[in-house]
Write a structure and sequence with these properties.
Layout (H helix, E strand, L loop, with lengths): L1 H11 L4 H24 L1 E13 L13 E10 H11 L4 E4 L6 E4 L2 E5 H4 L3 H5 L4 E5 L3 E5 L5 E7 L2 E5 L3 E10 L2 E5 L2 H4 L5 E2 L3 E6 L3 E6 L7 E2 L3 E23 L5 E6 L2 E9 L6 H4 L2 E4 H6 L4 E3 L1 E2 L6 E7 L2 E8 L2
Parallel strand pairs: 1-3, 8-12, 9-13, 16-19
Antiparallel strand pairs: 1-2, 2-6, 4-5, 5-7, 8-11, 10-16, 11-15, 14-16, 16-18, 17-23, 18-22, 19-21, 20-23
Length: 326
């Protein structure tokens, strides 16, 4: 009966079936426009996101064993509010915190205060959400203790220099050691970690940069990269002939050194600021003679003054004859 009344009403208004479909389409378009408009507007709402903490804490696991709910009053578009209500409250976010932010409470319990959370708001809620304030005062996370050891970092590099250029000292790394976490039997086999290869050719100036560390299976490092630097300088080579003296010789002994003078090629920083012939002293150590089978001892340098960055002694070994002093 109701359907008949509705049909007679539509006929009296001149509506056909095609007009009815057009009306429904118009209503649908109007609703869509209204919905898109309202979802694009900004709203204030309390949004909740579950968070698992990630942090490089000495002696503890990298990931917390529990999760905490972060509640904040946020300003966002209707679309983002709807998305966070439907999906965000169920999707757990893993947030990497700096160790300075994660404060130790007791045993394996650490906490983050709401004042420290603000700088991590974009990781928790996304870049399109503005946090006005956090309703969660303090978040408590549990990090299980793990085995670890500290090992040095060794640089791996292949470097060549332009003619008359060389390095001053060894390549420096910062940090020069890392903490390695893992099972005890894995840690026992690790004595050092290495960088990715650093390759440079025809160097004529200092270099520096950041290099990743070579990963090892089933362990983690306290850092994944290191900063490296190497000082490079121009040099001139000065060839001199210097006498060799004996050091550590007992008072009742005397030593004859053959040859008594050796040639030394000194690499000096350019421009030359020292007289290498008056600054460098060569010697052989009596202790080396005592452990020598053939009586040949290495020639050593007492110290290198500033400005001399390297040397080569020819010959490197000299014949030593020791006898009682008369």
């Amino acid at each position: 009966m109701m359907k008949g009344i509705l049909d007679r009403l539509l006929k009296s208004l001149g509506f056909s079936g095609r007009d009815w479909a057009a009306l429904l389409l118009a209503l649908l378009l109007a609703f869509s426009t209204w919905l898109i408009h309202n979802l694009s507007l900004k709203y204030n709402d309390y949004l909740t996101v579950p968070v698992i903490a990630m942090c490089n804490l000495d002696g503890y696991a990298e990931q917390s064993s529990n999760q905490c709910e972060v509640v904040a009053r946020c300003r966002a578009t209707g679309y983002n509010v709807l998305r966070m209500d439907l999906i965000g409250s169920r999707k757990v976010r893993k947030v990497v915190f700096q160790p300075t932010v994660m404060k130790h409470k007791e045993n394996d319990v650490f906490y983050v205060t709401s004042s420290d959370l603000l700088e991590y708001s974009h990781l928790i809620y996304g870049d399109d959400v503005t946090v006005e304030y956090f309703a969660s005062d303090t978040l408590f996370f549990n990090f299980q203790k793990v085995d670890f050891k500290r090992v040095p970092v060794e640089p791996v590099y292949a470097i060549s220099y332009r003619s008359q250029y060389t390095n001053v000292g060894d390549m420096e790394l910062n940090p020069d050691s890392v903490t390695v976490y893992g099972d005890p039997y894995r840690l026992e086999a690790i004595e050092r970690v290495y960088t990715h290869p650093i390759k440079r050719v025809e160097l004529d100036a200092d270099i520096q940069g950041v290099v990743p560390l070579e990963k090892l299976r089933n362990v983690r490092f306290s850092t994944s990269e290191a900063h490296y630097s190497l000082d490079v300088t121009r040099y001139v080579e000065v060839n001199v002939k210097l006498p060799v003296s004996a050091a550590g010789l007992p008072a009742d002994k005397e030593m004859v050194i053959l040859p008594s003078n050796v040639e030394v090629a000194l690499r000096c920083s350019f421009p030359l600021t020292v007289d290498p012939q008056n600054e460098v002293t060569l010697y052989v150590d009596y202790k080396d003679f005592l452990t020598s089978i053939s009586g040949k001892c290495p020639v050593k340098v007492t110290s290198l003054p500033k400005g001399i960055i390297g040397y080569e002694i020819r010959p490197m070994y000299v014949e030593c004859i020791v006898s009682d002093r008369r």
